[in-house]
Design brief:
transmembrane; globular; alpha+beta; 19-stranded mixed sheet; 449 residues; 11 helices; membrane
Length: 449
Amino acid sequence: MNPPQVVKKYKRVYKFAIALLLLVNLWIIIGIISFTAETKSFSNKSLVPEEVDFVMTINSKKLIKELLVDVLFNTELDKSSAELFIPKEGEVTNRLGADITSEVVVFYDNWQGNSAQGLLFNLSNQADFDRYQSSEEHTIKNSNSKYGVIINLDEGSPGKARSHYTNLANRIINSEKKDGQAAHAQPMLNLAYRGEGDQYLNDLSLNLNIEKETIFIEGKGKLKDSAIAQSFIQNALHLPISEKYFQLQTSEIPEDAMKYLTNFLSKLGVTIPHIKSMQILVYGVTIGEINGSMAVLPNLDCVLRLDDKIQIDSLMKDLNPYYRDLVNFEKQHITLGDVVYHYTQVSENEIHIGVTEKPKYTAKEIKPHYSMNGYPSTILEIEGKGFIAGFIKMMPPVKLSKQFLEEVEHFNIHAEQAGDSLEIKGEISIREEKFMTVEIAKYGLLLFN
């Protein structure tokens, strides 16, 4: 047998061994899932008190089963991808003692200005959980023979916050489960946001499921009375034909977001009326310098529709003197680093700011809604000269995220007012021959390895 044939033979043997090892690992997990499946239709989410602000429930069994079916039967993994799914020698995969095949609950809460993030799960090994090392000052642990809960507090949280969340951990561990949906009817992931009565959106429930190449999103939330609005006419930017973009459209701007924007604009010396709606087209970002300091400048076009009449020329003349020198009042643009932002009066209460000098618009009647669509990879389309821009492009989180998002061929999430509610639907799809569970798993494994 000549050398090339020997090499080919051993390559085939190596690939077979990798595939066999992968299959053994995955079939063991399938067996564990099958024998540990709960027969009762209870949800760990019911252990968390209703006053907790935000709760995310992960149906691990359903998610892992979908991933295993896709990996074993639907996807042809290359050698490097297959090796990602094989635990490394000496790797500790479950230091928490958590049962990874049971439902996992992640929650966030804010009490008297002190925030906390928590994790609730079934235990497979209480001794491992008890040995788990954590920062005693900022972490609260509690468990019984079946459940474990960990709550992380913000650094510098006062003693009263620790007492409050220690009590919360005790309540969770000692709660009784309530009846819920049958396991097969539960979504892979559910997001529940309680909200406050005076907030824009309350009692939000959002379900997420994955089938083949697509993530399906569906949910509903209740609008506060003052947020319920009528249809309106808005000048909408024409969408680019040859250039990729990511589009964000909103109706009423939530109060918290408006306060943040108002505070930011006040530093520039600008005061604007309340924003009723806006449309943003993002094409990427430019890494540059302004007066010797690094700046991340979005490449975008934006149309703002305001409550009252506004004059963009007068607005620019009111700019803080520090920024006024950057404005060309005759040509109606402001230069920040390497990016030129043009500004235009669209109507008596609408203005345009963006990188397109003479954008085109169409007047449309729009129902109150929120939407995101287009190509999300454009958010990480980084331009710029010099070492810093190049360095940021090559950072693993940026590079891997961009590679993953470039696989997305369809992205559309839409929320529309229906009576006193906001109904949400969405789909995110990658290329048809690929499988979303596998691509997300590969992305996560590469990112955290």
